[in-house]
Each structure stands twice: as C-alpha cells, then as structure tokens.
C-alpha cells in the first residue's frame, strides 16, 4: 500500500478496554492496522476477511471486537 492510497471508509475495532485497531476500505480492497502499527497490513478482498484478519492478529483467545463505522 502506498502513502497515496485513498481511504474510503473506516471501521474502528473496540474490545473491553477500548480501541484495538481499525479496518480501512482502500482502492484495492480492505486493510487494517492495530494500535501501534506504523503501517497498514496486507490488503484483503472483502471487509469480512479484513475483520477476521484483524481478529486473528489479536492476542490468543481475544473476543471478537465490536466494529463501528466512522
């Protein structure tokens, strides 16, 4: 993903302690960042897959986050 990629929509992922990261719709599909990431992760073909990838990147046993569109 380049620095000039246009973000179309954003969903923030929340867990019990607050925000965990975010999913972004970009021209190529969907990507995500966890808090503390310096750059976006891989691009995925669908929102569902990107949300699943974000969940998989959390600590083992983490509950499914609540995603809120912003």
From TrEMBL:
Keywords: Methyltransferase, Transferase
An example Gene Ontology biological process: methylation
UniProt superkingdom: Bacteria
GO molecular function: methyltransferase activity
Protein name, as recorded: Methyltransferase
Organism listed in the record: Galbitalea soli
């Amino acid at each position: 993903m380049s620095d000039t990629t246009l973000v179309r929509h954003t969903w923030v992922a929340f867990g019990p302690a607050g925000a965990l990261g975010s999913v972004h719709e970009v021209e190529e599909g969907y990507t995500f960042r966890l808090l503390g990431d310096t750059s976006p992760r891989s691009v995925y073909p669908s929102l569902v897959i990107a949300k699943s990838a974000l969940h998989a990147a959390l600590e083992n046993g983490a509950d499914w986050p609540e995603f809120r569109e912003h």
